[in-house]
Amino acid sequence: MQRRTLLQSVAAIAAVPLAAPLARAAGQLVAVVIPPLRKPVDAWRKLLSPLACAVLFDEGTERAFSSPLLGEHRDGTFVCAACLLPLFSSKAKFESGTGWPSFTQCLPGHCGFKTDHQLAFEVRTEYHCIRCGGHQGHVFDDGPAPLGKRWCNNGVALNFVPKGQALPAWRT
Ligand SMILES: [Zn+2]
């Protein structure tokens, strides 16, 4: 094998986990484990706005009705504003009336969860980007049928990529 061909093959293999979190194996879709990105919060602070950092890495919440993504109704993909991992399809977006972008489900395997005791009167399920750990929002049980879930997301924690535009390479 010529060196150039070998390098191209290696590049193709290396690109698979980045470009295809879901891979086909024996004709079925299987989830590929997404390796965590361990990046110091100070490094994120140099890349992101103070508000985005407050939400993503200090578990803050943006003001209701403040996100331009509330009015985003095009087909496309919502990616983590920090590491750029795709988190939601536009197909899962719905109007919840809450003032935060809302979704019926996260892309399978792209979000992690933990129990949030921040509010004294309510235990909530917090979710975050499975790759960088950036806080996205909370998931509630009052979403539309058939799934019944409402993924209440901070718009500042997401970037939107319209259909037809290439998804960005994940940040490292
Ligand atoms: Zn992320």
Characterization of this structure:
This protein is α+β, with helices and mostly antiparallel strands and about 170 residues long. The chain folds into 2 domains: about 1-30; about 35-160, Peptide methionine sulfoxide reductase (Metal Binding Protein, Guanine Nucleotide Exchange Factor, Chain A, Beta Complex), CATH 2.170.150. About 20% of the residues lie in helices and about 30% in strands. Strands 5-6-10-9-8-7 form a 6-stranded antiparallel β-sheet. Strands 4-3-11 form a 3-stranded antiparallel β-sheet, with no helix packed on it. It is globular and about 35 Å long. The relative contact order is 0.20. Residues about 1-20 have low confidence and may be disordered. Zinc ion binds next to loops. Zinc ion binds near residues 83 and 85.
Number of domains: 2
Total DSSP helices:
3
CATH architecture of the largest domain: Beta Complex
Strand count, sense and barrel status of the largest sheet are: 6 strands, antiparallel
What's the CATH first level of the largest domain? Mainly Beta
As a whole number of angstroms, the C-alpha radius of gyration is 17 Å
Alpha carbon gap, first and last residue: 31 Å
CATH overall fold name of the largest domain: Metal Binding Protein, Guanine Nucleotide Exchange Factor, Chain A
Structural class: alpha+beta
User: Order of strands in the sheet with the most strands?
Assistant: 5-6-10-9-8-7
Given the C-alpha coordinates, what overall shape results?
globular
Can you tell me the CATH superfamily of the largest domain? Peptide methionine sulfoxide reductase
| Distinct small molecules | zinc ion
What's the mean pLDDT score? 87
Please report which band the strand proportion falls in: under 5%, 5-15%, 15-25%, 25-35%, 35-45% or over 45%. Answer: 25-35%
Helix content: 10-25%
